[in-house]
Design a protein that fits this description.
The structure is a single chain. By secondary structure, the protein is of the alpha/beta class. The protein folds into two domains: about 1-85, Hypothetical PUA domain-like, domain 1 (Ribosomal Protein L25, Chain P, Beta Barrel); about 95-255, Alpha/beta knot (3-Layer(aba) Sandwich), CATH 3.40.1280. About 30% of the residues lie in helices and about 25% in strands. It is built from eight helices and twelve strands. It has helices at about 20-25, 35-45, 105-115, 135-150, 165-170, 190-195, 215-220, 235-255, and strands spanning about 1-10, 10-15, 30-35, 55, 65-70, 75-85, 95-100, 115-125, 155-160, 175-180, 200-205, 225-230. It has a six-stranded mixed β-sheet. It has a six-stranded parallel β-sheet with strand order 9-8-7-11-10-12, with helices on both faces. It is elongated.
């Protein structure tokens, strides 16, 4: 279990991420039980008390408001009051991110989750330096923590690292695939979005340090990908995807 603060009805409450089975049999009035490390965290670290209200969600979009009825370091029990104000991203976003060096991918996953990414696909591009060995579980934990902090009721998926053909092959057939490429100068990302469908999933393909090779761009184009530019300045790989996500959200959900 992990926890963060959220606003509910003007009050600050704690949000807990629990396995889906915890909420599967917890209708209004039903019990939610936290044990082990989760209970110790709630009782000892957070010092929650009987009567406190918390939000509990399972990472799939289900959220419940719970009033605690028993609190100990071994077991915390709550009674479900109502469905929570679950928030889901307005657009299905997929980020195919060339794996950068060091811990840069950590920030990409955190900020991408806050911006509504539904699936991260770490890309083993030709120019990638990192092989991402042993880091996927860390990225999944970061995604879960960022989902809690941002008020999402779902937690984005983080796949195992993929070669480009495999990453493209897993995309849904109706996806709008935008390829961020420094070799494209004429088509801004906003123009591609405005010319594309107004609904449906959007995938962003971002190269690692050094960018995508022309052959990789061609492979993406054969899958229906559209090369786009983010402007005249050269962005780092860990910046480009996050900037593009913000642009997609603006064009598809906020632009008047």
């Amino acid at each position: 279990m992990a926890v963060s603060r959220a606003r509910r009805g003007g009050l600050s409450v704690r949000r807990f991420l629990v396995p889906a089975e915890v909420l599967a049999d917890a209708p209004p009035g039903g019990a939610v039980v936290l044990r082990g490390g989760e209970a110790r965290h709630a009782a000892v670290v957070l010092r929650l008390r009987v009567g406190d209200r918390v939000a509990v969600f399972d990472g799939t979009g289900v959220e419940r408001v719970v009033r605690l009825t028993a609190v100990s370091s071994d077991e915390v029990v709550g009674r479900v009051l109502e469905a929570g104000a679950a928030t889901a991203p307005a657009v299905r976003l997929i980020l195919i991110q060339g794996v950068p060096k060091g811990s840069k991918m950590d920030g990409v996953v955190r900020m991408g989750t806050e911006l509504g990414v539904g699936e991260f696909v770490p890309l083993l591009a030709r120019r990638a330096v990192s092989e991402a060995r042993g880091r996927v579980e860390r990225w999944r934990r970061i995604a879960a923590a960022a989902a809690k902090q941002s008020g999402r009721a779902d937690v984005p998926a983080v796949t195992e690292p993929q070669a480009l053909p495999d990453a493209l092959g897993r995309l849904p057939p109706d996806v709008l695939l935008l390829v961020l490429w420094e070799g494209e100068h004429a088509r801004p990302i906003g123009a591609a979005l405005r010319a594309g469908p107004t609904s449906g999933p959007v995938a962003l393909l971002v190269g690692p340090e050094g960018g995508l090779e022309a052959e990789e761009v061609a492979v993406a184009e054969a899958r229906g990908g559209i090369p786009v530019t983010l402007g005249p300045l050269v962005l780092r790989t860990e910046t480009a995807g996050v900037a593009a996500l913000a642009m997609v959200l603006y064009e598809m959900t906020l632009r008047g």
